[in-house]
Design goal:
- The protein has 10 helices and 9 strands.
- The chain has helices at residues 4-20, 26-36, 40-51, 56-60, 84-93, 109-117, 131-141, 185-188, 204-216, 232-241, and strands at residues 62-65, 68-71, 99-103, 123-128, 147-150, 165-170, 217-227, 245-251, 256-262.
- The protein has a 7-stranded mixed sheet with strand order 5-4-3-6-7-9-8, sandwiched between helices.
- β1 and β2 (68-71) form a beta hairpin.
- It starts with a helix and ends in a 9-residue tail after the last strand.
Amino acid sequence: MPPPARNAAGQERLVADLRAAGCVFAEDEAAVLLASTDDPAELAALLARRVAGEPLEQVVGWAQFGAVRVPVEPGVFVPRQRSRLLVDLALATVPAPRTVVDLCCGSGALGAAVAAALAGPLELHAADLDAAAVRCATRTLEPFGGRVHRGDLYDALPGELRGRVDLLLVNAPYVPTVAIGLMPPEARLHEPRTALDGGTDGLDLHRRVAAGAPGWLAPGGALVLETSEDQAERTAAAVRAAGLDPRVHRCADLDATAVVGVRPPGPRTLA
């Protein structure tokens, strides 16, 4: 092992390279890179990928999300820390869910974080349209006994889940199409467009998710849907139009916004 002074000098150079590339949290990123390999050649290759703009999580192959470490392949949507709000809201709304679905799951971070927080038995499902995301989510959720399905929203789910989902966690894309070009390069160049583009006003997927949710939720079950502060009232309106009782939640610390829509108890009534 190199002497501490040499380690410190190497870390300082790494931090300087990362900072020159525009990495805001260069010290933290340097620590992650250094912990990922003892091989100088491999470290140089990882640094080159990061400096070229690839997300750190894709470079090292994982992301820390709450209490769970989530595998992240190149080209897979990177879970954002703000999405931890969805986990907190889900468990506060339905503290002891029996059946959980992580829809538009990406790497499966939301489902894994909920499962990790629960002590009792849980039936866990996740779904995504992207094949790479499904591979990552399968690795993420396997320790929790989760099943991952590939397909378009609810079409991917087993029909046996209809009417008995206690928690429906959804981080569907909500960036308006015209705003994709304004996103940081590491997102728009290295994450799938299908995980970012929410259509003309950003809410195409939110309307589809909201419209389908009542048919899958159990009585008293909850849809927990990430949105933006500017779009929150329109997301809530879509949830309300579907027959759920919506509440908008904002967390300044995480810079996060979400809508929780609860299906009323009792038999489902069709509009």
